[in-house]
Amino acid sequence: MSTFDRRLRAFSIDTSLTAVLVLFTIFFDIEADIKTYLSFAIYFGVALVPYLFGTGQSFGKRIQKIKIIKNTKELVPMTLEVPNRFYLVLREFVKCILIILSFGLYIFIAGIVSTNREDGRTIHDLIFKTRVVVLTRYVTDRTEMRRTSSAENSLKGYSHND
After folding, report:
1. 28: which DSSP letter?
2. How many whole angstroms separate alpha carbon 99 and alpha carbon 115?
3. How far apart are CA 128 and CA 16, in angstroms?
4. Which of 3, 44, 60, 116 has the fewest Cβ atoms surrounding its Cβ within 10 A?
5. Distance, CA of 51 to CA of 157 (rounded, Å)
6. Hey, CA dihedral for 33, 36, 38, 40, is it positive or negative?
7. pLDDT tens-digit profile of 102-135?
8. What are 61-70's pLDDT values in tens digits?
9. Cα(88)–Cα(128) distance, integer angstroms
10. Cα 139 to the center of its chain, rounded Å
């Protein structure tokens, strides 16, 4: 499975989580304006909060076993160094704004850019000098392709004995 497929699945998982949380606001008896602000807060919360912890993974990326790292010149990086939290949050914030302002068209454009590049980087990866790497050969794998400390830390709880 390519990086783009996993990225798209991770985005779908994060968007689905956002949709479920926003649907819960229907049951609250609050004004429509507040529901709108709450919906945006949920959207940005699901998109940005995981990156405050500096793991390089959102909920969807963790499930798909992919991770955001600093870009390196090698196609297969020797280390999986995560950018600092500020850049991770800023990267996702810019991506969210581009998605909202383009009414979702940005995802389509990013997909075209990603599939036409050997390294699979998208526009926001190029801007913030990051890339997304696959940590396992298959999503169902429980071990990393390469035993680096960064990969082990990002998938805590998974071991060969599980």
Report:
1. S
2. 18
3. 26
4. 116
5. 19
6. negative
7. 999 999 999 899 889 888 899 999 999 999 988 8
8. 999 999 999 8
9. 9
10. 15
